């Protein structure tokens, strides 16, 4: 069953007003349940806007967006979002950051401990449970962010350039680790990035948006085998997709 669908989705900020700005137009997309999808496009084409609407932070001005056939309206634990800036609470330890959502919903101490143990391990932070965010590197804080969203057990993970601020090596490690976590949980992921190589490495499907107003310019189905390994980045198939997508983006 298709998980997230957009139908003729258009979004105009300040619709009807003098400064109305249409950022997305006629977006028809389907993201299958359990798939890994990326959205790429030039700066300002509406990627974050699209993701925020999927999170339910605001409604599209026209058209609809559905999750399993139900119109998305408002935020919901089923749709977890990792923002570009890390959203780690500085006054909570790694473990308490990770179990924040379940704690808010009244999880028992034992349930919290179980979630903390599972997700600190899954995101590679075992041994750092009692550390404070100020004691972590940027990549580790990103891991906390990802663990915290996963700990809420969402059906859909929305990630807005989560690795954008990381150095190349850390980024590649984070990508491999993310795929491993994804493989174990098979949540639907929608991942926004500027980085073509990152999109190819991670995804089943890449949506290329045109410049503002963002429209669906191209959909690339990536058939590289899984599990993905770093040496695939140098294969002819990978490079061919990279060249094709590169030529499509205005840069
Ligand atoms: N709340 C808002 N009110 C008015 N305009 C907005 C608002 N949020 C975003 N915009 C405009 O919508 C356009 C798309 O913004 P958006 O953040 O979705 O782009 P993006 O594709 O994520 O860009 P980037 O790659 O730089 O992150 C931009 O021109 C931006 O100025
Ligand atoms: Mg953005």
Automatic annotation (TrEMBL):
<dbReference type="InterPro" id="IPR050166">
    <property type="entry name" value="ABC_transporter_ATP-bind"/>
</dbReference>
<dbReference type="InterPro" id="IPR027417">
    <property type="entry name" value="P-loop_NTPase"/>
</dbReference>
<dbReference type="Pfam" id="PF00005">
    <property type="entry name" value="ABC_tran"/>
</dbReference>
<dbReference type="InterPro" id="IPR017871">
    <property type="entry name" value="ABC_transporter-like_CS"/>
</dbReference>
<dbReference type="InterPro" id="IPR003593">
    <property type="entry name" value="AAA+_ATPase"/>
</dbReference>
<keyword id="KW-0547">Nucleotide-binding</keyword>
<feature type="domain" description="ABC transporter">
    <location>
        <begin position="4"/>
        <end position="236"/>
    </location>
</feature>
<protein>
    <submittedName>
        <fullName>NitT/TauT family transport system ATP-binding protein</fullName>
    </submittedName>
</protein>
<dbReference type="InterPro" id="IPR003439">
    <property type="entry name" value="ABC_transporter-like_ATP-bd"/>
</dbReference>
<dbReference type="GO" id="GO:0016887">
    <property type="term" value="F:ATP hydrolysis activity"/>
</dbReference>
<dbReference type="GO" id="GO:0005524">
    <property type="term" value="F:ATP binding"/>
</dbReference>
<keyword id="KW-0813">Transport</keyword>
<comment type="similarity">
    <text>Belongs to the ABC transporter superfamily.</text>
</comment>
<keyword id="KW-0067">ATP-binding</keyword>
């Amino acid at each position: 069953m298709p998980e997230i669908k957009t139908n003729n989705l258009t979004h105009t900020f300040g619709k009807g007003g003098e400064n109305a700005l249409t950022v997305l137009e006629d977006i028809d997309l389907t993201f299958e349940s359990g798939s890994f999808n990326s959205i790429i496009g030039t700066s300002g084409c509406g990627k974050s806007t699209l993701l925020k609407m999927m999170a339910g932070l605001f409604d599209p001005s026209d058209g609809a967006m559905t999750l399993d056939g139900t119109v998305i309206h408002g935020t919901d634990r089923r749709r977890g979002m990792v923002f570009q800036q890390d959203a780690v609470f500085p006054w909570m330890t790694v473990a308490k950051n990770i179990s924040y959502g379940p704690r808010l919903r009244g999880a028992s101490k034992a349930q919290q401990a179980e979630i903390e143990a599972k997700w600190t391990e899954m995101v590679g932070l075992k041994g750092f449970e009692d550390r404070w965010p100020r004691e972590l590197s940027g990549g580790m804080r990103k891991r906390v962010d990802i663990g915290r969203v996963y700990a809420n057990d969402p059906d859909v993970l929305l990630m807005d350039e989560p690795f954008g601020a990381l150095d190349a090596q850390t980024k590649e490690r984070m990508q491999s680790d993310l795929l491993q976590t994804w493989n174990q949980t098979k949540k639907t992921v929608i991942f926004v990035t500027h980085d073509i190589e990152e999109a190819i490495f991670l995804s089943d499907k890449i949506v290329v948006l045109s410049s503002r107003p963002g429209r669906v310019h191209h959909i690339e189905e990536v058939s590289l085998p899984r599990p993905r390994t770093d040496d695939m980045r140098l294969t002819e198939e990978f490079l061919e997709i990279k060249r094709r997508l590169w030529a499509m983006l205005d840069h």
